[in-house]
Amino acid sequence: MSESSGRENRPTDRVGRFLYNITRPLALLGGVVLCLMGVLTTVSVTGRYFFDSPVFGDFELIALGTGIAIFSFLPHCQLMRENVIVDFFLSGTSKRFQASFDIVGNLTYAIIITLMTWRLPIGGYELYEMKQSTFMLGIPQWSTFPYALLCLFVLLVVCVYTTVRSYNEARLGRTL
């Protein structure tokens, strides 16, 4: 897939624009968290090297931040067709055939996200009940689960939308 500005992948219909206005701030938040993790790592490594004093609990904070960032990016990446796409094998086929494979991929992803959205609260509740926390800082391990669940729910809605979008493209014999 060639590099793009992202403008041509932006949804133009009303539902797509609504989802875009939800997923973009989530992705930007993920970017901010990622930048903060970079600063935290730099400060911790610098402190460790020059002063023999790293940031206390840096590994735990990076682990929590990584989860937040990843869950933040997923809905926007799916909406903008920027998830992993292997179009090398399909590049010589018709647009209808390509759109048909998009339906299968989007539907499979929607099923997986449905299962994750169903099971994540159960795992988070078990962590809450067992009062598990991080070793160094004592942050409750369930604390990021509500945000992850929100992002998964948004991702599930986006997956349903992209499946319907791919179906309409296959029916019309075109792709974006």
Question: Which helices and strands occur, and which strands form pairs?
Answer:
Layout: H1 14-51, H2 58-79, H3 95-129, H4 145-172
Helix pairs in contact: 1-2, 1-4, 2-4, 3-4
Question: Separation of termini?
Answer: 13 Å
Cα shape? elongated
Report the total helices.
4
Beta content: under 5%
Overall radius of gyration? 20 Å
The total beta strand count reads 0
Structural class: mainly alpha
Unreliable runs: none
How are helices and strands ordered from N to C? HHHH
In this structure, how is the largest beta sheet organized? none
**What percent of residues adopt helix (DSSP H or I)?**
55-70%
Instruction: Return the domain count.
Output: 1
Mean pLDDT: 89
Could you explain the architecture of this structure?
It is built from 4 helices and no strands. The chain has 176 residues and is an all-alpha fold. The chain has one domain. The longest helix has 38 residues, at 14-51. The model has no long low-confidence stretch (mean pLDDT 89).
Features:
single chain; 176 residues; mainly alpha; elongated
Task: Give a short synopsis of this structure.
The chain has 176 residues and is an all-alpha fold.
